[in-house]
Each structure stands twice: as C-alpha cells, then as structure tokens.
Amino acid sequence: MTTLPDTILVDRDGAIATVTINRPEKLNAIDTRTARGLSDAFDMLSADDGVRAVVLRGAGDRAFGVGADISEFGDRRDDPDRARDYEASWGSGLADCRHPVIALVKGYCIGGSLGLLPDTDIRIAGESATFAIPAGRLGIAYGHDDIARLKRLVSHAHALEILLEADRFPAGRALEIGLVSRIVPDDEVETEVYAAARRIAANAPLSARWHKKFARRLLDPAPLTEEERAEPFLCFATEDYGIGRAAFAARTTPRFKGR
Ligand code: COA
Q1: Ligand 1: which of 31, 66, 138 to mutate, most ligand atoms within 8 Å of CB?
Q2: Based on the domain organization, do 49 and 79 belong to the same domain?
Q3: Are residues 240 and 174 in the same domain?
Q4: Are 88 and 114 in the same domain?
Q5: pLDDT digits (tens, 9 = 90+) for 79-112
Q6: Ligand 1 centroid from CA 132, angstroms
Q7: What does the alpha-carbon distance between residue 103 and residue 8 come to, in Å, rounded to a whole number?
Q8: pLDDT digits over 168-186, tens only?
Q9: Is the distance from the beta carbon of residue 131 to the nearest atom of ligand 1 less than 6 Å?
C-alpha cells in the first residue's frame, strides 16, 4: 500500500472522500512530494469502487493553493531537461480519477494549483477567492498540454488574457469566464460543496463514472470506435438501472449499488 506524505490528507465519510493539500504555512504550495502524494491519493481512491465523490481542497481558509513550490525551482527547474522531469514527476492521478471530483476553492488559487482545476469536474469557490497564473511574471512558459487543459474551462481569448496579463482576478471574474462553476459566500463553501457531493453520491455511481469517462473521451478528436459507441448501452444491463426504474415507479428514493 502506498504511503502518503503528511502534506496530503485523505478523509472518508461513507462514499465521499476528501483530499486535502496540507501545507497551510506555505499556503498549500505544491512541492514534489506533495504532487506525488496527490497523484497517489487519487490513484488509490480511483481504484476504490466504494467512492462516489471526491472533494479536493487546501488546508485552512487562506488558500486552495499557490502553485508549485518556488523554493524547489533552483534545484529541480534549473534547466530544460530537469524541468521536464520535474513536470512528469507530478503524476496523473487526479486527471485519471474515475470518480467525480469537486474542487473546494477558498482564498488564493494560483499557478499550478489553478492548473489542477481543469482536472476536477465541478469547481465551487468562495466569493473572496483570488485567481492567477503568474508564469509570465516568473519567466516560465505554460506548455501546450497545460494551455489545452485550461481551454477546457475558458475560451481561447480568456486563456490568453489570464496568461498574458498574469494578473490576479476575483471569483466573480472566474465565474464569468467559466473557470469556476459556482461562487457562494465564503462561510457557505463547505456546505455547498458537501451538499453537491451528497447529491452526486446519491445518484447511480456507474452513470457518474460513465458520464465522466465519455466527456473526457470527447476531448480526444479521434473518432469513436464501435466498441466505444456500444459502451453507453451497457447501463441497460446493470442492477442499478432496475433499481432506478423500480424506485421511479414506486415513487421512492433509489438506493444504488454500483452494479
Ligand atoms: N512556493 C513556495 N512557497 C510559497 C509560495 C510558493 N508558490 N507562495 C507562498 N509561499 C510561502 C511564502 O514563502 C511564505 O513562507 P514563509 O512564511 O516561510 O516565508 C508563506 O507561503 C506565506 O506567503 P506570503 O507571501 O508571506 O503570503 P502573502 O499573503 O503575503 O502573499 C501570495 C500571498 C500568494 C500573493 C504570495 O505568497 C505569492 O505571490 N506567492 C507566489 C505565488 C506564485 O507565483 N505561484 C506560482 C508558482 S509557478
């Protein structure tokens, strides 16, 4: 079993898991071990069929995160080859997670921490959250893959606005351009996020996993294979489809099994 660093906390409340980036004294800046731990935590949760929703957050109220840990740059991002290795070392656990992921955003959401948002499925922010990608202020270039991921959420024009101005912008603007899905008063973010997580967890988990998988697949321009086109119809052979129909007919709340 993978051991997580103390900078990544995983809590579980039934089918809802919470992954917390736990470096509040550094505003949840992501150093290498934290990045790997984050990826490992999502790999572990993804493999667990008992999980139905995952909340991703930063510890404390001051920051979701302030991006990559700049204090490591001198060692790990001091030439193009090492910088490439560094980027690869972050892992893809969050991006590959089969379960719905909700980002709970409070305070600063900057750089590589903002870069996590396109790999989450719903993003709920407090009204005083602040966003920025300050790569241009550090002389760093955001790569093709990162820009493509950003453009899943915001338009080409807004992606360039964020990158070229490299300025901080408020939650209202993040909502306007599609970077976050919802903003709520700061003291209601947890309530809103966990209410959304409970709604997701009450729905059929196989439907959620299929919806997430199909939506992701559509980002790839390659034509769908016949096998892929057949996959949505597999739901009609599941026990949960029977449970859903029976509950509808009986006007009761379905209790899905994930089978
Ligand atoms: N990497 C490493 N440490 C960071 C960090 C980062 N990206 N961002 C903040 N920290 C650390 C600070 O060094 C400080 O640590 P210290 O108390 O040991 O000195 C601590 O977090 C608190 O940050 P501080 O700058 O004192 O807080 P602030 O409220 O005055 O400013 C920010 C907050 C977010 C505006 C400011 O920290 C900042 O601009 N950070 C850099 C963000 C960035 O450029 N990220 C992109 C990286 S590619």
Answers
A1: 66
A2: yes
A3: no
A4: yes
A5: 888 888 888 888 999 999 999 999 999 999 999 9
A6: 13
A7: 15
A8: 999 999 999 999 999 999 9
A9: no
CA of 106 relative to ligand 1 center, distance in Å: 15
Q: Ligand 1 centroid vs 130 CA: distance in angstroms?
A: 13
Q: Per the domain annotation, does 151 fall within a domain? A: yes
Same structural domain, 161 and 215: no
Residue 58 falls within a domain, yes or no? yes
Distance 134 CA to ligand 1 centre (A): 12
- Ligand 1 centre from 177 Cα, in Å? 25
Which one, of 92, 105, 86, 111, lies nearest residue 42 by Cα? Answer: 92
Final residue before a domain boundary, out of 163, 182, 200: 200
Angle subtended by helix axes 239-250 and 205-217, to nearest 10: 120
Q: How far, in Å, CA of 249 to CA of 109, rounded?
A: 45
What is the model's pTM? Answer: 0.96
Give nearest CA residue, ligand 1 atom 34.
66
CA angle 213, 141, 109 (to 5 degrees): 60
Residue 166 Cβ < 6 Å to ligand 1: no
- Helix (H) / strand (E) containing 105: strand 101-105
Phi, psi angle pair for 50, to nearest 5°:
-80, -10
Residue 85: the pLDDT is 83
186-236 pLDDT, tens per residue?
999 999 999 999 999 999 999 999 999 999 999 999 999 999 999 999 999
Same-domain status, 232 and 124 = no
40 and 162 assigned to the same domain: yes
